[in-house]
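queue> pop job 88
queue> type: inverse folding (structure -> sequence)
queue> payload:
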């Protein structure tokens, strides 16, 4: 899984009705939906097979070809795979003609930006950024004042039998929060184990 960099957001984004994006309770949000909602982005669900096809067509293309490509290149680790994916992404955007547009995706994107026909807005990462994009779940403090972190138990400054928030970050580190993400509060990190959380600047798309 690749880290999520601070980048421009749309006010809404189209997805299909997979459980990652959609719950059958209209008032409930998945963890991804809640993360996007925190930054003011809503999900628009693809309502028809035709709309879903536009979402899935390219995914299906790569899912069929990447395993064979990784096997041929003898790629067995995520970092090497991501480096190759970045090359493929750049080639796809800059060199391959889109069947419906008749131009490369990068050329179409640059034309839309020059004509101010895009719905992107700047995203300013806040104190919650790394916690919002982590895999989170609640953990209960044991009677001895500890919570599980990997194979060990770690002492935390919290009341026994209270609930905290376990965050597994994309860089492999783990944090224990006293509070859930909220725009009205700052994160209260009780424990952090692993590499330091840093935000790297995204690449700028040339005009």
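queue> result:
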């Amino acid at each position: 899984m690749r880290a999520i960099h601070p980048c421009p957001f749309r006010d809404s984004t189209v997805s299909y009705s997979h459980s990652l994006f959609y719950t059958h309770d209209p008032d409930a949000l998945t963890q991804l939906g809640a993360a996007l909602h925190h930054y003011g982005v809503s999900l628009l669900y693809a309502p028809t097979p035709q709309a879903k096809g536009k979402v899935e067509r390219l995914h299906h293309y790569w899912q069929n070809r990447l395993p064979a490509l990784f096997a041929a290149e003898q790629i067995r680790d995520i970092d090497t795979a991501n480096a190759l994916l970045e090359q493929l992404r750049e080639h796809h955007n800059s060199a391959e003609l889109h069947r419906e547009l008749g131009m490369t995706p990068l050329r179409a994107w640059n034309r839309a930006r020059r004509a101010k026909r895009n719905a992107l807005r700047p995203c300013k990462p806040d104190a919650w950024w790394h916690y919002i994009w982590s895999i989170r779940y609640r953990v209960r403090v044991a009677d001895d004042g500890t919570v599980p972190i990997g194979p060990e138990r770690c002492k935390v400054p919290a009341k026994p039998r209270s609930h905290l928030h376990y965050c597994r970050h994309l860089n492999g580190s783990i944090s224990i929060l006293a509070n859930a993400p909220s725009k009205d509060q700052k994160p209260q990190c009780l424990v952090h184990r692993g590499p330091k959380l840093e935000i790297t600047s995204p690449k700028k798309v040339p005009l």
